[in-house]
Design brief:
The complex is a heterodimer. Chain A is of the alpha+beta class. Chain A has one domain: Jelly Rolls (Sandwich). Chain A has helices spanning about 15-25, 55-65, 80-90, and strands at about 1-10, 10-15, 30-35, 45-50, 95-100, 105, 110-115, 120-130. In chain A, a hairpin with a 2-residue loop joins strand 5 (about 95-100) and strand 6. Chain A is elongated and about 50 Å long. By secondary structure, chain B is α/β, with parallel strands linked by helices. Helix content of chain B is about 50%, strand content about 15%. Chain B is built from 15 helices and ten strands. The chains are: A alpha+beta, B alpha/beta. The interface of A and B includes residues 73, 77, 81 and 82 of A.
Chain lengths: ~130, ~375
């Protein structure tokens, strides 16, 4: 398993595809599965088109509309943004699995892997694990 | 040597170990004392208290203002109790949206209780910061943040002052974090700085003991002292003056560095006025403090700069403390303030608080501040 750190400077999407590809190359595995896992409860991992940066903003804007940061969450141990972040992360999910074929990560031409921050800025971590032969 | 000095020194040396315990005990309570909706209702923060508690409020106010972005002011309990609501119409609720943090270690200081009663009646949320959850202050307030203070030992007001400061800082960090003025990572980093202050505080004790013992000997003939500082250093100066009065009985006053040039500069017989200056090299007031150093020298005052940079002033007038962020000056300042007072009292044979005896016997058990008549309503509201 490989572990990476990143310092998010805001809420939103952060491209982690280069690190994931590097982890695959380092593993030497040519056929199998690659898992990206986020060990946080206020951040998630997703796949999004990377061509238009405004599209990334749309996605983040939309989840803010779905789960607004409000003061009446029952979870008040931390902050309203943290409470909203728990809900968003639960919806989006904390891991993604990708196919590996002939040494390549199977991604469409528009697809990139993004770390999605819901409670930034924070110091964050994510893991990759490659399974196969 | 005064027989109490070893006890005082022992207590001061135990302070660094107390700091992480204060964070551990108070932080979870500060996290729960106000709900998220209550925090978002706050439009201004008033910190109030008397004596050391007011000094703690004055010391913490700049940091809380910076962190929360809210108007934060430290007011004396008399101002809050008798003047803040003066002239307001009955049932006007003029203080709706105000969070009034009432600090009293015992929870029994009459004027602070009165401040809580009157501001609550005027619509404020009143938060008691006290070591006594069953006190009159706790009953008068809408919310109570209990301060855990392990055995306060023999040095008057030292552990309780630190606990009050920690309570204010941790409350301010909680409000700032929940209002999203600072990130959770930043809030936690600042909490960590509070915990880790034990290291520079222990170092400060090491570097301060001998020089301040010598300074107390040199200044023992002085019957007047000025303690100077600005911003958070103003709180540290006020605390320093308070400890000198309590321990030695001399007339010690604190003053802002700018105000010194307008007022205390003109005190006669300058060679008899001991002067202690909180002079952090990274302080926002550093340039004015450098000017002050030259002025004190020209006046011929006996003075000492408590600085964190050996190049800040002349070596014979400087004591170099560890570097800490300016907002922590009031906590680190406890060390030189308490040590100077203890050594000075030992040198002159003074009894702390004049032994609460003779002309001062009325002060026993805090009777002068606890027994004052409380006026829960303004005169215009009576009848």
């Amino acid at each position: 398993m490989n572990t990476y750190t990143l310092a998010t400077d805001r809420n939103g999407l952060f491209d982690i595809t280069p690190q994931v590809l590097a982890a695959l190359r380092e593993s030497g595995i040519t056929d199998g599965l690659l898992v990206v896992s986020i060990p946080h409860t206020t951040a998630a991992v997703t796949v999004v088109s990377h061509w238009d940066p405004l599209g990334l903003e749309d996605i983040d804007d939309e989840i803010r509309r779905l789960v607004p940061t409000r003061v009446d969450f029952k979870h008040q141990a931390d902050t309203p943004q943290d409470a909203a972040g728990h809900v968003k992360a639960a919806i989006v999910g904390h891991s993604r699995t990708f196919c590996v074929d002939k040494g390549e990560l199977v991604l469409g031409s528009s697809q990139k892997i993004f770390f999605w921050e819901f409670d930034g800025p924070r110091r964050r971590t994510f893991h990759t694990q490659v399974l196969g032969k | 040597m005064n027989q109490l000095l070893p006890d005082f020194l022992s207590h001061i040396r135990s302070l660094p170990a107390l700091l992480p315990r204060l964070v551990e005990a108070i932080e979870p309570r500060a996290r729960r004392v106000l709900s998220t909706p209550e925090i978002y209702q706050v439009r201004q923060i008033i910190l109030t208290g008397s004596g050391d508690s007011h000094i703690a409020a004055e010391s913490a106010a700049p940091a809380l203002r910076t962190w929360t972005g809210l108007p934060v002011q430290a007011l004396k309990a008399m101002d809050v109790a008798r003047y803040l609501t003066q002239g307001m119409k009955k049932h006007s609720q003029h203080l709706r949206g105000a969070l009034v943090v009432c600090v009293s270690h015992s929870g029994e200081a009459a004027r602070v209780v009165e401040a809580a009663q009157r501001t609550r009646a005027a619509g404020a949320r009143t938060l008691a910061l006290t070591a006594n959850p069953d006190s009159r202050l706790s009953r008068a307030a809408t919310n109570v943040l209990a301060l855990a203070v392990p055995d306060a030992g023999a040095v008057p007001g030292t552990s309780s002052y630190c606990a009050s400061l920690f309570g204010l800082y941790l409350l301010g960090l909680r409000i700032a974090e929940v209002r999203l003025c600072i990130s959770m990572d930043t809030a936690n980093a600042l909490r960590h700085e509070l915990t880790q202050l034990q290291v520079p505080m222990a170092h400060a004790i090491e570097v301060c003991e001998k020089p301040l013992a010598a300074r107390a000997q040199a200044w023992a003939h002085c019957r007047v002292a000025d303690i100077l500082g600005s911003g958070p250093g103003a709180g540290a100066a006020a605390y320093g003056a308070a400890k000198l009065i309590e321990a030695t009985g001399i007339h010690a006053v604190s003053q802002d560095i700018e105000e010194f040039f307008h007022l205390n500069y003109f005190v006669a017989e300058p060679a008899e006025v001991a002067t202690l200056v909180f002079a952090g090299a990274g302080s926002a007031a550093a340039s004015r403090t450098r000017e002050l150093s030259g002025t004190l020298q020209d006046l011929g005052r006996p003075f000492l700069l408590l600085t964190d940079d050996a190049r800040f002033g002349l070596p014979e007038h400087s004591l170099v403390l560890p570097v800490v962020p300016e907002w922590l000056t009031p906590l680190l300042g406890v060390v030189p303030a308490t040590l100077l007072a203890a050594f000075w009292a030992d040198r002159t044979g003074a009894a702390y608080f004049r032994g609460h005896s003779g002309r001062w016997r009325a002060s026993q058990s805090g009777a002068l501040v606890r027994g004052s008549a409380i006026e829960p309503k303004a005169k215009e509201d009576e009848g």
